[in-house]
Amino acid sequence: MVFSNSEISILSSSMMEEAHKCYNEEADAILWRSDEQINLRTTGTYATASLRSFQDVTRGPKKAEDLSEEDHWIKSAYMGGLVWPEPYEGIATELDFNEYPNILAHSIAFGQ
What we know:
Largest sheet: 2 strands, antiparallel
Oligomer: single chain
Strand content: 5-15%
Shape: elongated
């Protein structure tokens, strides 16, 4: 319940205790969900915590955790085709978008 006297608003002690309890529960939940990266008790406000979290995230990526040998080989095999492609040697045809309508017309005209 809020009591107001002229320009000063005063919260009752029960509301202050409830707000404090709610803040502590939220601070604990945020600390747990963020793997102890966002601590409302050290930053003070939600705005400061979100700004500091944004600054930490935009500094750069975190170092990856050490992978097991199996995970390392799976990751290497997956990345191999994307990062280090080997040149293809064999029969291939190149698609020429300028000639494609002529190829279609030729195949329709001669039934191929």
